[in-house]
Request: fold
Amino acid sequence: MHHQDLPPLDWGTFLGTWQVRPGWLVVCALMLAAYAVGVHRGRRHGDTVGPLRMASFVLGVVLLAVTVCSAIDGYAMAIFWMHMIEHLTLITVVPTLLVLGHPLTVLRNAGGESWRYAVDVTLRRPPVSWLTHPLVGLVAYGLVVFYTHLTPFMDTMVDDPTMMTVEQVLYVGSGAWLLLGAIGAEPLKWQTPYLLRLILLVMAMVPDTLVGIVLLQTEQDPFPRYMAMRPAWAPDPLRDLDIGGSLMWALGDGLMMLLSVGVVIGLLRRRDQVLGAWLESARTATLVGHVERTGGTVQVGEGTVDDDDAALDAYNDMLARLRAHEER
Reply:
């Protein structure tokens, strides 16, 4: 059905409008099959992810299929605010569920020692290590948000429907790219500390906020061809843009805030991970340097300096030597 011929949107048409998207359905089926095989093989090798993580991944794939096959996608080219709902679902909600399913961990656990070594090497060496840096994901996310809303990209989808699929792929891909560093716990080179995860999520609000404000303040139609193909019952173009901009700003930032709450909960549960392993290694190196300069020796084992009895004894001995030196 042509977008201009769509019936007025109500709960009946929303729940009753469906379309078959063979390409997306094949992709979703392959994702579920690959994940199931990975989990099964991981169990054979004694490692797997928990049931909640498996359920999260499956729910993410199902939500992806529902989004692109339901009225959310069917009306996305007819009403701008519905396009924004699809955008936020694909760029934030679906990637969150997929990333929480730990797909890279499932991939790593699907084989024996040689397979795991190969996966670890691939994930930790260039170019994969460069691409999976948290800041690269943040930049990719921002570029996608800006490009698909502040350029004539919306109008190109009117002339070439395949660009709608490109946009959907960009949304899911850039969202997952960002969230791998912000909420993920995968076997990557860059393990983002919890405090930096919060900063990353706050910075990710900037593109959503800026685009939302621009759409709210616009006084002329930025997508003339897109707006021209809308059905007669659709809201006024500027009103439609206002609603879409409000959703982008409020709902986009709200979703990021919700993810931030989850990171804060993780931070409270793992206080030793506030600034990550690099800070702990710096503390260890500083302690060893101070102890050795005062004539002592120390060997720090695994874990944090605060939990290592030998390290604490060496630190106390260093303080005693310093006091004795001052008393002379």
Remarks:
- The CA atoms of residues 25 and 134 lie 30 Å apart.
- DSSP finds 16 helices and no strands in the chain.
- The chain has two domains: 3-274, 277-327.
